[in-house]
Amino acid sequence: MMMDGHIQELNDKHKQLEEQIEAEMANPDWDEVRVAALKKEKLRIKDEMERLRSSVH
């Protein structure tokens, strides 16, 4: 299904953002603004995935 492919792409991006957040926070001089922006994007993607999953079922 085309929708499943889109959800998978979003899931992959969600995982990449998590890795970016972890890498940024591992740096002693991590940027709070950058981490906040990454977390906001990660949450937006999660919400979109949930919306798509609920529309499929």
Keywords:
single chain, mainly alpha, 2 helices, elongated
Protein model, in words:
The chain has one domain (2-56). Helices cover 88% and strands 0% of the residues. It has helices at residues 2-26, 32-56. Helix 1 packs antiparallel against helix 2. The longest helix has 25 residues, at 2-26. It is elongated. The mean pLDDT is 93.
Overview in brief:
The protein has 57 residues and is an all-alpha fold.
Alpha-carbon distance between the two ends: 13 Å
Using the CA coordinates, give the radius of gyration: 13 Å
List the secondary-structure elements in sequence, H or E: HH
Q: Report on the biggest sheet.
A: none
Number of strands: 0
If helices are DSSP runs of H or I spanning 4 or more residues, what is the number of helices? Answer: 2
Helix content: over 70%
Shape: elongated
Structural class: mainly alpha
Beta-strand percentage? under 5%
Average pLDDT reading: 93
Low-confidence stretches: none
